[in-house]
Amino acid sequence: MAKKREDYDVVIIGAGSAGLTAGIYCGRARLSTLIIEQGLVGGLITSTQDLENYPGFPDGVGGEELMNLFYKQAKRFGCKFKLTDVKEVDLAGDDKVVHTFRNEYHAKAVIIATGVKPKPIGCEGEAELIGKGVSFCSTCDANNCIGKDVYVVGGGDSAVEEAMYLTKFANKVTLIHRRDQLRAAKSIQEKAFECKCLDFMWDTVVKSMTGTDCVTSMVVENVKTKECTTILPGEGTNDFIVFPYVGLTPKTQIFEGQVDMEKGFIKANESLETSCPGVFVAGDVRVKTLRQVITAAADGAIAAVEAENYILSR
């Protein structure tokens, strides 16, 4: 069956804070704009309960709430949305083509804002237990933590914030970190150390997990002493839950060979144009030093304005 063709000025791949902001700017410029998202509109930040460092919200704001506002604004300026997977792209020519299962979308410019996904620990047994006691979304699985021991692996902002959030549900939360101090922002650390229900396991890495339909044991190793310890479920329970927050992997596989990358992240100039003319990148998926909602939004604005300039110059 032949695919249905639709034509746009700009196709944005990804509907996180970068993609939505790009949509707002493209829409205001009266460019016909399509935003394609394979998962949840809003991206990873929707799982954050309390975002304290986004300007304009002195009392903080939930990630989902903020992204809903972004989404409504993009819709207001005429952006169309398709919730589907992008199967492949052809970006080399003047006519950019984005293929989904049933449709092909043609555009004069493309903005890549696919974002990142959580990186697994990589230990033995983890892959088999994803969705069975290993979770990458505290908001999604918080209710499953009630009355259980919970282990959060990592030491950055996300790991510490999610560990504090999970203390509202779990019997006990322990944060496992490979170093002897956290990498999270000082303000977040201060709150964490004041949290009475949060314990810390320093200088420690996870070596393996076991279980069939749930996590029933976990072996951790002290990186300094090399001593290994087996963790078992708490008293009165048969399992525990593990949340890895050890890093991020860019979602760029479909763009390999079409734009220049560095360790999977897409390279761009100051105008956020990639090595392929007419293709721009915004947000966490690009090579950058700071990955935050506000920097992703800034990227989206720049990429949209430069995409408009590119179209007008043709």
Task: List the topology elements.
Blueprint: E1 4-13, H1 17-28, E2 33-37, H2 63-76, E3 80-83, E4 88-90, E5 96-99, E6 103-112, E7 116-118, H3 126-129, H4 138-141, E8 149-153, H5 157-166, E9 172-176, H6 186-194, E10 198-201, E11 204-210, E12 217-222, E13 228-231, E14 241-244, E15 248-250, E16 261-262, E17 265-266, E18 279-281, H7 293-313
Parallel strand pairs: 1-2, 1-6, 2-3, 6-18, 8-9, 8-14, 9-10
Antiparallel strand pairs: 4-5, 5-6, 7-15, 11-12, 12-13, 16-17
Keywords: Flavoprotein, Oxidoreductase
GO molecular function, one term: oxidoreductase activity
Protein name: Thioredoxin reductase (NADPH)
Mind explaining what this structure looks like?
The protein is 24% helix and 27% strand. By secondary structure, the protein is of the alpha/beta class. It has 2 domains: 4-117 and 248-313, FAD/NAD(P)-binding domain (3-Layer(bba) Sandwich); 120-244, FAD/NAD(P)-binding domain, CATH 3.50.50. Helix 1 (17-28) packs parallel to helix 2, helix 1 (17-28) packs parallel to helix 7 (293-313) and helix 5 packs parallel to helix 6.
